[in-house]
Amino acid sequence: MHPGSLILVRHGQSTANVEGRFTGWADVPLTAQGEQEAVEVARLLARDGLVPDVVHTSVMVRSIRTADILLAELDRLWIPVQRTWRLNERQYGSLTGRRKTHVRQEAGSDRYHAWRRSLHARPGPLPSRRLAQLRADPRYAALRPDALPAVESLADMTARVVPYWTDVLAPQLRTTRTVLVVAHGNSLRALAAVLDRLTEPEIERLNVPTAAPLRYDFDDSLRPRPRGGAYLDPRTAQAKAALVAAEGHT
């Protein structure tokens, strides 16, 4: 049996996206536009015969809500759904909730770019009071206190995504026709970095658009064919990715 298809979808537009804020582990809802984007994702999946057999989300409401909407549109609310903190957005630490334009003006363009796009740069940590609130959240009750990050680089994120790929997603792809992951810009960047073995410059250039399904097919060794996958609507994905790249500069 050949491996199945993996579909990666960043959640629909959130209120923080509209306001141009670093969101991180803050839980924010979708906008009305974000909900409609989830419907459009479902229609693209149906068009291409990519109705999912299993779904994976983060434990954040914008990811969960996007998945629920598109599954309802596909009449697939009954399929298995797995939720994991490992697919959460990057922990942006002290930048959480701040407007990106203000951060760029304050820190300078080079540091701002490194915090957003580089593999290793980290901003300051989340204040201890806000970290304590996360540790008290029932979603993370099963985690050791030291497993909850106060801040992450993309390399840190990749380290937490890799076990989910190795232990959960990869085995499912060997037995399941279509696996759907609905997550976040940086958790999907981290997953793409693993799948495509991206170099650091390639990681910096990768911008993941909201609600733009990206299809990966694999050879028998689970190497992507083609490398980088293929967007179901390339023109719209390219336009949305350009908006992501410009965040904080307009």
Q: What's the quick description here?
A:
This protein is α/β, with parallel strands linked by helices and 250 residues long. Helix content is 44%, strand content 10%.
Structure characterization notes:
This protein is an alpha/beta fold and 250 residues long. The protein is built from ten helices and six strands. It has a single domain, classed as Rossmann fold, CATH 3.40.50.1240. Strands 3-2-4-1-5-6 form a six-stranded mixed sheet. Helix 3 links the parallel strand 2 and strand 3. The longest helix has 20 residues, at 154-173. The radius of gyration is 17 Å and the shape is globular. It starts with a strand and ends in a 5-residue tail after the last helix.
